[in-house]
Amino acid sequence: MVLTDDYTDHITAVTHKLKVDSVGIGIGMGHHSDTQHALYHFLKMSTVPTVIDADALNIISDNKEWLEIVPPKTILTPHGKELERLLGPWESYDEMMEKTKEFSEKYNVIIVNKGAPTYIVYMNAVFENTSGNQALATAGSGDVLTGVLTGLLAQGYAPVDAAVLGVYLHGLTANIAVPEMGYHSFIASDCIANLGRAFLSLD
Q1: Tens digits of per-residue pLDDT, 158-167?
Q2: Which domain of life is it from (predicted)?
Q3: What CATH code is assigned to 23-201?
Q4: Are 49 and 73 spatial neighbours (Cβ–Cβ below 8 Å)?
């Protein structure tokens, strides 16, 4: 489920002999120069559906020419600040959305713009998520979302469908949990604990 590295201080390579159906990359990677090279080689060689988050997003923001080798229909999951690092600054919501659509079209990637609400952008298509609440503004919540998206990709969902469904399910976990536990005590593991109920609610 999780790959680390033989080198104990930082990641030096993203290699494995496993047959995998999808990859989520970036959480806890760090920014060491060796790690940046490892990410570059992973992007160049990867052929499986991929979710890019956290440190991997920030590394790519510092090396924007690498966007040319990001696999088609990769899902990128930036929060607002990470999105600004990718796109550059904007003056208004409309400008941000236009820049996001242009970025998605140029690099053939899916953008999950995490926020309240979260938007999923692919080319000119924009999906506004309707689930979730402020309980999701807790440390690690975005990491759980990356796991959900990666899991849906591994099950064979098309990347855009995985992004839309995964974001909605992620939000539902907070909708389900909050009436019983409130906003203030909700933590990222509560997302995971309520994923089953979120799936069942779709029936």
Answers
A1: 999 999 999 9
A2: Bacteria
A3: 3.40.1190.20
A4: yes
